[in-house]
Design a protein that fits this description.
By secondary structure, the chain is mostly helical. The chain has two helices and no strands.
């Protein structure tokens, strides 16, 4: 019977570990989602900066003249 008790204890321990791992997985998923959102924002800001710099150095961007022409000072 010692083997049966050991098996029951092993199952309990594994179920506890499984619950813990599932919680950890959910936390890691949330962290990954937050990181992806932050990176998307950062990449967007960098793209905007590249566009601005291109406009400043001579309108290398094809639509730079259109953008400048559409600006209105209020």
């Amino acid at each position: 019977m010692s083997s049966f008790k050991d098996t029951i204890e092993k199952i309990k321990n594994l179920e506890t570990e499984k619950k813990s791992l599932l919680v950890e997985i959910e936390e890691l998923k949330k962290m990954a989602d937050a990181k992806a959102i932050a990176l998307e924002s950062e990449v967007g800001a960098l793209r905007d900066e590249v566009k601005s710099i291109k406009i400043l150095i001579g309108g290398s961007e094809p639509n730079a003249q259109k953008v400048n022409a559409n600006l209105t000072i209020v």
